[in-house]
Amino acid sequence: MDRLLLSASVLTLLILSFFSEVNSASFKLVNKCRYEVWPGVLSGANTAPLSPTGFALKPGKSRTLSVPKAWSGRIWARTLCTEYSPTNFSCVTGDCGSGKIECAGSGAKPPATLAEFTLNGADGLDFYDVSLVDGYNLPMLVVPRGGTRGGCSATGCLVDLNGKCPRALRVAREGGGGRVACRSACEAFGDPQFCCSEAYATPDTCQPSVFSLFFKHACPRAYSYAYDDKTSTYTCASADYIIIFCPLPYTRYNYYYMLLICCDVLFNFSSTKFYMG
Ligand SMILES: *[C@@H]1O[C@H](CO)[C@@H](O)[C@H](O)[C@H]1NC(C)=O
Ligand SMILES: *[C@@H]1O[C@H](CO)[C@@H](O)[C@H](O)[C@H]1NC(C)=O
C-alpha cells in the first residue's frame, strides 16, 4: 500500500515537472479599454492550441494564459461582439467567424491589430511584434517581463487611429455610429504594390506607400506593411508577456509608456528621414 502511495506521488511529481517544462511562458491579457473586448488566439501550424482560443474580457479585467515552450501564433481583440445564441456569436471587428466565443482555429477577419509571437525560435529567442499589416482596430501594447537575453523592448501601437484613419481605409459601424477600424491599403485596394505580392513580392520591390506611412508615423514600432521587419520585430529570451488593449491612459505600467513614447518620437524622426530620403 505504502509502495503504491509512493509511486503515486512520484508520478504526480513527474507530471508536475512535465507541465512546468511545457508551460514555460505566460501571456497576461489586460483590457484597459473603456469597453468590453473579446480576445482571440490563433496558434500557428504545428503548434499546440492555447486554451481558451477566445473569451470575453470586461474593462479593467485581465486573464493569464499559459503558453507552451515553442508556441507561435497571434493574439488580437474582437470588439462590438454580440452573442445572439450559443452558436450565433459575431463581432464587428476582428471576428473569427466561428459563430462561438472560442475561435477554435480561425483567425481574425481584417482589419485587426495583431500581436504576433514565435517563442523559443532561432537562438532560443522569442520573436514578437505588433502588426498593422492586416489593418487596425484598437491600440495595443506588448511588454516582456523577466527576459534573460535580447532587447526585450516594449512594442505596440499606442495611438487611437480609428478617428484619424484616411477616408479610403475607414471602417464605420453599419447603420451609423462611429469609426471602428482602419483597413490596410492591401485589403482596401487589393493592389499587389500594397500587398507585396506578384512583382512586388520582395523587400526590395515592395516599398512603403503613403498608406503604410500613415500607420508607421503614428506607430513607429508596429509593422506597417509586409516587409517592415527591420523596425518592427523584437526579441527576448524566456520572458512572460503582458498584452494590454487600449494601454493609455494608464497608471501601472507608466514607465513602459514613457519609454515607448519617448523612443517612438526619436524613432519616428529617424524612420521618417529614412523613408523620405
Ligand atoms: C444570428 O442572429 C441574428 C439576430 O437574430 C440574425 O440576424 C443572424 O442571421 C443570425 N446568424 C446566424 C448565422 O444564424
Ligand atoms: C511622426 O512623423 C510624422 C511626419 O513627420 C508626424 O506627422 C507624426 O505626428 C509623428 N508621430 C509621432 C508619434 O511623433
Architecture overview:
With 277 residues, the chain is of the alpha+beta class. Helix content is 22%, strand content 28%. It has a single domain (24-276), classed as Thaumatin. The chain is built from 5 helices and 13 strands. The longest helix has 23 residues, at 254-276. The protein is globular. Mean pLDDT is 86; it is low at 13-22 and 268-277. One 2-acetamido-2-deoxy-beta-D-glucopyranose is lined by residues 217, 264-265, 268, 272. One 2-acetamido-2-deoxy-beta-D-glucopyranose binds next to loops.
Any descriptors?
5 helices; Thaumatin; 277 residues; 22% helix; five-stranded mixed beta sheet; six-stranded antiparallel beta sheet; alpha+beta; disordered C terminus; binds 2-acetamido-2-deoxy-beta-D-glucopyranose
Beta-strand content: 25-35%
Main structural class? alpha+beta
The helical percent reads 10-25%
Give the count of helical stretches: 5
Question: Which second-level CATH architecture applies?
Answer: Sandwich
Family: Belongs to the thaumatin family.
Pfam family, one: Thaumatin
Keywords: Disulfide bond, Signal
Protein name: Thaumatin-like protein 1b isoform X1
